[in-house]
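step 4 of 6: structure.
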Amino acid sequence: VCFFARPKSAMQPSSLFLKQDLIRIQFGDIKVAVDTPDKRLFDLVKNRFADFRSNEDPDVVVTCEITSDSVFDKHPPGAAYQFPVIITGTLETEMVGFHFRARFQEGNIHIIGPRATYPIDFALTHLWQRNHPHGFILHGAGLLGDGRGWIASGPSGCGKTTLAGLMGEQALCDEYVGVLRQDHKFKIVGLPFWKGRPGSGRLDGIHFLAHGVEYKKARLNRACAWAAIRKQIGWPFNDPSAAQRTLDLAIALVQEVPCFELQFVPDASIRQFLWEAA
Amino acid sequence: VTLIHARHVAWRDICEEFVVVDLAEKKILGFNLSAGLVWCMLDQPREIRTLTATMEAAMQRQVTEFINTLTDRGLLVETDDPALRCQWPLLVDPPIISWCETIQQAGQASTCAFLPAQNPLCNQVPFS
């Protein structure tokens, strides 16, 4: 426990608080601690990563410097993401409505931006991609149970979050999942987007979700699987060589891992159907 | 004019077509086999007029048009490096871009959580 000693005049109401601890997070296999003297951001981060809290010593410490109030109070999310954020250093990139520069010095990331958690998300996502040249991030829910792992992927609104919610403790994450190739096999890694738990395991198959009036599962040929998966890849736009590796990995993925179209009804019996049909 | 692939692309052949990821424009393009062969040739600096000189007139026009399209899209760029000579592949069909998709997953600004109809679980977390 420690106190932040600052001149009274420099204190903002939100930064007057007792620093209880760093917020420790498990981001895939990277252990992260977020350190901020700002009470509101501290609470936001604590809530944001609630499912992925860790007690282990961090590999990386993220420090945050606030430049403006929470942009989500006054702006819709799409517009809020356009607020400038600097993640100190040299790696420059541009995403939809969002610009940032980043340099990940050994063991430390410093973020300067609005009082929000999305800059931390971006920084950690880039860190994960940089640390895993044989991996990429897929827009999909990660499911892991009975020693088998699955990805449920598809466009927004297809039911990833619903399915992950129905899978309970077998859901690793419901929005973005890490895909890694190790020892000539693919595995999935739970990342903190948005609900789930830390964990990883062998990848046995990918389901591309569709709404249905009954359960229906059909194996996709390679061309259809490729057409489905390429839309869901989180492409690393800042780095052409990383994008080339991602492309090669994604092609290997649809060649080696069975892919299915899954129509499902959102009720609890999906758990049994999913594992029995595996 | 000597042309070569732009640096902001990734590409590979899969399922009898060529896929080119344009990182600058956030597009994925599918090329037919002829287009893929032309694209592969331009992995090295090539002098276009020399390459197309031996083609019959119709194919020469179609290949030139295709290369102009790629140049306009920023997928090919001029280079000062010396052009390499090569044997131009025999093209049966005209080279075309078969399809083009906009990449959706361009960071969390495109997350499902921004859709108003989403599950509340999906809605609440990133808005902080």
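step 5 of 6: annotate
 - The first strand of chain B starts at residue 2 and ends at 5.
 - Chain B has a mean pLDDT of 83.
step 6 of 6: archive
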